[in-house]
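Methods — Computational structure assignment.
A single polypeptide chain was analysed. Its primary sequence is given first, followed by the predicted tertiary structure written as structure tokens.
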Amino acid sequence: MRSASSGRAGGAPHDSRGARHPVTVMAEQMTDVFLDLGYRIVEGPEVEAEWFAFDALNMDDDHPGRTPGRAFHLEDPAEPGGRSGLVLRTRTSPAQVRAMLGRTPPLRLVCAGRAFRPDAADTIHSPVFNQVEGLAVDLGLTMVDLKKTLDHFAAAVFGRGTVTRLRTHRSAYTDPSAKVYVECAVCHGVREDVSEDAAGDAAAGPCGTCGGGGWIEWGWCGTVRPLVLTTCGVDPHRYGAFAFGVGVERTLMLRHGLKDISDIVGGDIRFPLGMDEFAPGGRPRPTPRPRSTATTRAVPAARAVPDLEIIPLARGGHGRRGPRGREAGGGLTRSQSLRRRIGHALAGAGYVETPRFPFVCDAAWDAFGLAPDDPRRATLTLTNPISPREPSLRTTLLPGLLAALGLNLALGNHYPALFEQGVVFAPRTGADPTLWPLADHRPTASRLDALNATVPAQPSHLAIALTGESSWARAVDTARTAAYVMGAGLITRPTEYAPWRPGRCLELLVGEAVLGHAGELHTATVQALGLPPGTSVMEIDLTALEHLTDQGGT
């Protein structure tokens, strides 16, 4: 990889190809649809106070969505086994609550991020998944506006002519509420599929994609309840609001005919590399279809949103311009733009993005050779983990990334070079329920400050893991490239820091601030994890790096 001082990207190691993960690309393409319509991207913490995750969304203490069977709860460190008032968010809606509390209408917001539920893994469910949720708050908004927005969204994602259908569904957050269905792209609602039987003869039967129903569930939607608006400081007598949400993995599966979500989340790099077949021109564009009669009444032409062509799932980015002439993906915050640029830079240098679950076990710290008082051992603990072996949340990206490295080596993927951008979790004491605001009016600033103080810091990190000759030097140069993208001049100096090998470990600094480490793994760690000698890793705190560049500390 090229030095950061050159200002150019480095070549890929060996002859390997790189790729950003299809879920990352899919989420960006979905949010870009709304950026073209004037929406803003908002983000929020993954570990959240129950008040933001449930109470503000009209989910009272008895609501089934906040039980241990439906939500991951964090343990109170002062009361082992007791709940702390913190949870892993079950949807990205708390980010909408935070946005409404911090802004005044009119609002157009879209949020993409991870959500968590203690679901048993199967072909369509994963305990960690990604969502895109939207919220609009303005004068006179109705379900008609919502339906037109969803039709526009579906057409942009699945192809011109795709429409949606709504079916009544009960929700604490919205009323009226509905589940969102899209017309089956295989049978187009005819409800039969023609395929060949074992003898090679044509045989008709129920569609294998939709099961013969003609429609496939995609997400949820509805108009926001007045009580929720009041809690968030919005006058429900003046403003209307609608919200909607869809799963990113589910959208990817529907659009590209994928049958098993484990292929998406399993960590095998052949999946993101194989999605190259969906590069521009590599995937047939669905043909336009007559609009179904099972939709709501038409929106007046003056309020209709423009149609968009399908956005190809192209590894490497966005060449399409939106209806306002803006490059798709523009209008982002600095953090969001930098994360995209770093992902492109690493994929271009031969690294494959490999997002991992945030759950870790204590054995990882032993394999890393961490001292008993090492702060990385001070983890947040789940009261109801998916696996008793992994009860904690990560304080570093390395355990999951190294597990993925071992998996790919075992699968015969030679010389894998992996990267992940994701949050880590600092320890924090529990949230005091006596401080929680009432969910019937906007909380005072002091109550919100007290509540926010209980939510742990969740900085964004970048980590890489790779094998091969001179991999430790490439790991260091990768850190320089990431810092260069962020506008920082990175310096290094030798140090000793577990789990790196003494003599082949460098501190990564901007000024005098240590932001991370890079080098070759310690021999004992390599042996404990069953990895080949010479395995190298790098991890750097992107949040701290961005803060320093904002402060001019480069």
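Note: The chain has a mean pLDDT of 83.
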